[in-house]
Each structure stands twice: as C-alpha cells, then as structure tokens.
Amino acid sequence: SIAMLRAKGVDFDLTRRHGVGAAEFGPRLRKWVRAGLGRAGVVTFSGGYDLAYLVKGMFGDGYKHPATADEFQAVTRAIFRRRNLFDVKEMACRCPCDLRGGLSRVAGKLNVARAVGESHQAGSDSLLTCHTFMRMKQRYFDEDDKLSRVAGVLTDITASQYAVDVVM
User: Fold this and answer.
1) N or C: which end of the chain has fewer CB within 10 A?
2) Which residues contact 21 (CB under 8 A, 6 or more apart)?
3) Residue 109 CB: number of other CB atoms within 10 A?
C-alpha cells in the first residue's frame, strides 16, 4: 500500500512535517461529531474499515474495538448517529438496477465523473464517493423514508474481516 501511494505521488515526509497528527485530529473530530456534525453526515464506500480507523483515532491508542462486527456497527451508529451515516456500496445493493462493483464502476454506471485526481487517492475518492451518493440519492432515494431505510447500514463486515481489523 505504501509503495502504491508513493507511486501515486503521496509524500509521506511532507505529510509528517506539515500534516495534522492523530493526537490533535482525534479530539477535534470527536468534538465535531459530538456536536452533531452540523448539517453534514458521514458517507463512505464500503467504509467499515475506514470507520474503524476514525473511531480509533477519535478515542486514541487506548481505545479497544468491540469484540464483534455487530457490536462495532452499534458503536458506529451511536457515534455517528444513524441518520447521518451512509455507505454508498450498501445503497448500491438496494437500487433497482445493477450497481455492483467498486467505487469507480458504480460512479460510472451513474454517469458520475471523477472531478480531480486518481483512484486510490483519499481526497479524490472521497469527492467521488460524495458525488456518487448525491446522484444515487437523487435517483433512487429521493424520499425521506427511502433514505432512512439505508441510513446507518454499513456494508456487511464478516466476523473474520472484523477480527483482522481489530488486530490491526
């Protein structure tokens, strides 16, 4: 992963010197989330692992993840408030047409173009995830009751996948 990111132009030394450290970022994120995220929410694409890292960052190195995937989903729903948490991959599975695939494939099927950057770059993928969510919401989840059915539902994390995540 590190080699791929370096090949894509990520400068880890520059990030280390000028980036925001986890010790500073975590408490700020926790405060923002506790305040309700404002009008924002959390939108992921198959984001169970991403949320695991965010939660760990919010609560520091002493945080111990729950023992099971179901308990972890309950924790993420409580922290991010169910109504503000969406997983685009899970939403794609619930659409009336075939939207299976990775982020770029799902976005392509919805005619959503990548606005900047390349795949596997956090900012570029995040923006594409957001635009894909907005298009999917507009086309398939245009009513509040339809959207509420997918709020807080994360793409299935199997017990074995979650065990690997907890160890990391």
Assistant:
1) N
2) none
3) 17
Q: Residue 92: name the closest of 128, 135, 62, 50 by CA.
A: 135
SS3 44: strand
What sign has the CA pseudo-torsion 52, 56, 61, 65? Answer: negative
Please write the tens of the pLDDT for every residue from 26-83.
888 888 888 776 667 789 998 888 888 888 888 887 888 888 888 888 888 788 776 6
Nearest to 100 by CA among 151, 91, 122, 139: 91
Q: How buried is 138 (Cβ within 10 angstroms: 0-12 exposed, 13-18 middle, 19+ buried)?
A: exposed
* Contact (CB, 8 A) for 85 and 152: yes
Neighbours of 37 (CB within 10 A): 14
Q: How many degrees, rounded to 5, is the angle at CA 156 between CA 113 and CA 168?
A: 95
Please list the residues that pair with 44 across neighbouring strands. 87
Neighbouring C-alpha atoms within 13 Å toward the C-beta of 107 = 20
